[in-house]
Amino acid sequence: EFNKNVEYVNSFCIDSRKIHKGDVFLPLKGNRVDSHLFIDKVIAKGASLIFSENKIDKKNIIYVNSTTDLLKNLSKKWFKKLNSSVIAITGSNGKTTTKELLYHVLKDTFNCSKSSGNHNSTIGLPLTFLNCKLSDTYTILELGANKPGEIKTLCKTIKPNFSLITNISNTHIKNFKSLDEIKNTKSEIFKNLDKDGIAFVNINDKSIRQISLKNKKITFGINNLEADYNGILNSKSHLKINTFELQIPQDINHLNESILAVYTIATTLGVSNKNFQKAINSFTIPEGRGSTLNIKGYKIIDDAYNASPASMKLGIERFSKLKTKGNKILIIGD
User: Which of 92, 105, 225, 332 could cross-link to 169 by cystine, CB 3.0-4.6 Å?
Assistant: First the structure.
């Protein structure tokens, strides 16, 4: 009887500021803000359904004990209905850029969805999953880990068919005892693969190389003859991957390892070299992750997203290698 009141469902949303007509609103009680305070505003914006931990006698509001538990349970049920294969990506650095690049490469060949922004947590990931389409062939998900066991928890909701660890470093060591504990947490993305799943292994990374695997693996590496996909840098704009010679645009020539990882996955899934080159030529770096702005004759690199030590080190190394006729100014702040 309740569903008769709902004309259509657009998507699921936890942010009252981003509600569109037809959205389902899931208000969460956070440490700073309780989103239940904005239910009236959400109703005015035309939400189709609202779940609430507070008992409110209004049309299309459903009372639940926990909106967080509901989010996780709904995403598990939605996962069972989807026919798409899940590509899961984690790592200490570069996972968002790699995810965005992989989506950009696959979207012209397959129907696919991706996690939005850096929605990679135990809340963000199920929310992203609920907004994937039944028609998708592939779903590309970024998994974050800020504490031990978090990847394993996420993988219980989404059983990956393909998994990638970009790299492992002490980027977020604050909540971990050691680099080994970080490695063990990240390794769960391989250990929780579907039984017929494939692990894409960066064998240039010592920690990743040491992870024992039960599943099939496909390896890649820069200047590594042992790799299934060996990338040889002939110049800043030229990456030879096995027998394929890839031209890389100047503004992304610092992303060679991410490009090689994406090529390995995309080729395995059936993307042609021609389509891969076309996608690389049109790729734009996500905002705040090394994108370049040209303003009044000045070249400004916006690398302001993350200030972890490992990310900052990579940013400084990239900046140091840039050649310029004038001065170079590095601005660092918290």
Answer: 92
- Tokens 């440490």 identify what position? 31
Task: Specify whether the CB–CB gap between 307 and 276 falls below 8 A.
Answer: no
d(CA 11, CA 9): 6
Instruction: Report the distance separating Cα 58 and Cα 39, nearest Å.
Output: 11
Token representation of residue 307: 């200030």
**Exposed, middle or buried, 276 (CB in 10 Å: 0-12/13-18/19+)?**
buried
Q: For the segment 252-309, what is each residue's pLDDT rounded down to a tens digit?
A: 888 899 999 999 999 999 999 999 999 999 998 877 777 788 889 888 888 877 666 7
Q: How many CB atoms lie within 10 A of CB 162?
A: 22
155: left (phi over 0), alpha (psi -120 to 50) or beta: alpha
User: What is the DSSP secondary-structure string of 179-229?
Assistant: HHHHHHHHHHHHHTS-TT-EEEEETTSHHHHT---SSEEEEEEET-TTSSE
The CA dihedral of 201, 204, 208, 213, to the nearest 10 degrees, is 40
> Read out DSSP for 105-166?
HHTTTS-EEE--TT--STTHHHHHHHTS-TT-SEEEEE---SSTTHHHHHHHHS--SEEEE-
Q: How far is CA 181 from CA 35, 175, 221, 306, in A?
A: 35, 10, 24, 22
Q: What are the tens digits of pLDDT across the range 179-235? A: 777 888 888 999 999 889 999 999 999 999 999 999 999 999 999 999 999 999 887
Place of tokens 């042992």: 226
Q: What share of the chain is helix, strand, coil (3-state, %, to 5)?
A: 35, 20, 45
Say how far apart CA 291 and CA 317 lie, in whole Å: 15
